[in-house]
Amino acid sequence: MSKNNHVLSDTQIKAFMQRALDLAQLGAGNVSPNPMVGCVIVHQGKIIGEGWHQRYGHWHAEVNAVADVKDQSLLPESDVFVTLEPCSHFGKTPPCADLLVKHQVRRVYICNDDPNPLVAGKGIQKLRDAGIEVISSVLEEKGRVLNRRFFTFFEKKRPYIILKWAESTDGKIALPNFQAVQISNALSRRWTHQLRSEEDAIMVGTRTAQYDNPSLNTRFWTGKNPTRVLIDKHLQVAKDSAIYAGTTPTICYNSIKSEQKGHISYVQMEAENSWLPMILDDLYQRKIQSVIVEGGTALLQSCIDAGLWDEAYRWISPQAIGEGITAPTLTEGLIDRKEIGDNSLWRYSIEQ
């Protein structure tokens, strides 16, 4: 077999890595606490195999991509594009770096180094020790955006925090006395349930659980239900409330007891301390990489004021409520806005 001396252009390199990133996105909502990873295998400028990490505990992207190559004899003359440094340790599956070494691929392009201490450069070193050329930081920023939950988890030692609420055109989220009112439209509700299906957990406070009686599930979208997180200091939320129904794991942070009752975990907190950092640390210890904070205003505003958020989604309805509960105030970080039906979606990022 003749040696493959095909040289890829910068445009091709970026295009193949973008394809790998697009494949990685297909794992959204199914791979946590693992990162989303895509892999593309290229021979003489043409894709001969591709794959992505499809579900936690299943084969990684590199394994699926190698298996997709019909003529395995081409692998030693092929370039591999992978969105995250190949793992170098045994976990649910064997090390992907070992697989690439076994097939003696020509070159490996990597989008991001893995921040997980179990990997953290060891995968790259294993490839280089085997004589495989490694080129890293290809579309690095796009990779960090894709796996922002994963990077936040390891770098900040807390879940990635998404704030979300809907408000009327006059800045209210509920009627007086916290009575619920339908603000968002059907499209925004479906969007919300898609968001829930892609994140690990969803958090509300006592009043939201009492007055809205939310199920916090994904009934308007296909996908898993997030772990439900309730902050209920004095255990005021009734046991037959929707937030406790079903079998979805539910964590209730309170000042009274620690107890496990079926799918419900009661976690007692120290009353004199600030709860939010402690709750985020507990979620981190439970390997929950992302949490949506859906209300109410006091909980959302406490996250904003403490700088404990990463992105926020603010839905604004054209209807006016008049007297009612004022929505949270977020004045910085707006990155875009768009109209969805008769609602307006404003998106914020703390990085902005």
TrEMBL record:
SUPFAM superfamilies: Cytidine deaminase-like (SSF53927), Dihydrofolate reductase-like (SSF53597)
EC number, UniProt record: 3.5.4.26, 1.1.1.193
Catalytic activity, as annotated: 5-amino-6-(5-phospho-D-ribitylamino)uracil + NADP(+) = 5-amino-6-(5-phospho-D-ribosylamino)uracil + NADPH + H(+); 2,5-diamino-6-hydroxy-4-(5-phosphoribosylamino)-pyrimidine + H2O + H(+) = 5-amino-6-(5-phospho-D-ribosylamino)uracil + NH4(+)
Pathway terms, separated by semicolons: Cofactor biosynthesis; riboflavin biosynthesis; 5-amino-6-(D-ribitylamino)uracil from GTP: step 3/4; Cofactor biosynthesis; riboflavin biosynthesis; 5-amino-6-(D-ribitylamino)uracil from GTP: step 2/4
Entry's family note: In the C-terminal section; belongs to the HTP reductase family.
UniProt-listed NCBIfam families: eubact_ribD
UniProt name for this protein: Riboflavin biosynthesis protein RibD
Source organism (scientific name): Flectobacillus rivi
Name of the gene this protein is made from: ribD
